[in-house]
Amino acid sequence: MNGLSLTGMYVLAALLIGVGLGMSYFIVRSGSSRRPEGGLEWSVLVLSFLVALMGAGFITLTLVGEVTSSPGHESRTVVGEPAPPLHLRLVETNKEKRLSNYKGKVVILNLWATWCPPCLEELPELNRLQERYGPDGLVVVTISDERRETLQRFEREKVNLQTVSGYLPPGQSWPAPYDKVRSSRPMSFIIDRDGRIQNLWRGAADFSQFERAVMPYL
């Protein structure tokens, strides 16, 4: 659900349900017999129920999205396998880095973008994780495939990242399995001290979800 944040989805759903129920109540209360009279009122009543049903559908889809984006739900085909090589450049210094440079640390590898609302919701959580568990050997690596200038402006004006903030070098594409990010952002990988992927999932997570995912490896 990259177009709307989870909060936005719930607000939209509540608004649709409220409008639908309000229209239904108005139609029923306005009739002398406390029920719709005539084709127009029946049509409006049916429409109001459909609007409310649509709102309920939004809530259902949002809840399902939260479950399917929780840690451990993503395909486990690469879990337990060595994390494939990944090259990046640091946003701050433009220095070249490799994911393998962080072997010996527990890594949260987070693939995101400045235009992705769920990504923006979880960035403060990732900052907290780096601050809280960095002394215990955790490294949070956040990578976008946007231009360095775009990310520098974002960090200057929006969120000052405390993570290892990087970007995909120009001309480089996401290798598998990181290429899953093309269809869904954010995407997170938990990589243990031996450089093996231990968990991965699509969608945003909060502090406690990340915490539970990394604690067994710290």
Distance between the termini: 31 Å
| Biggest sheet details | 7 strands, mixed
> Uncertain regions: pLDDT < 50 for 5+ in a row?
1-5, 61-69
Helix-strand topology string: HHEEEHEHEEEH
The helix count comes to 5
Rg, please?
Answer: 23 Å
Structural class: alpha/beta
Report helical residue fraction: 40-55%
- Give the spatial strand order of the biggest sheet: 2-1-5-4-3-6-7
Characterize the structure shown.
The chain has 218 residues and is α/β, with parallel strands linked by helices. 42% of the residues lie in helices and 16% in strands. A 7-stranded mixed β-sheet has the order 2-1-5-4-3-6-7, covered by helices on one side. β4, α4 and β5 form a beta-alpha-beta unit. The radius of gyration is 23 Å and the shape is elongated.
Structure characteristics:
218 residues, alpha/beta, seven-stranded mixed sheet, elongated
List the helices and strands and how they pair.
Layout: H1 6-30, H2 38-68, E1 87-90, E2 96-98, E3 106-111, H3 117-133, E4 138-144, H4 148-157, E5 164-167, E6 187-191, E7 197-202, H5 207-214
Parallel strand pairs: 3-4, 4-5
Antiparallel strand pairs: 1-2, 1-5, 3-6, 6-7
Helix pairs in contact: 1-2
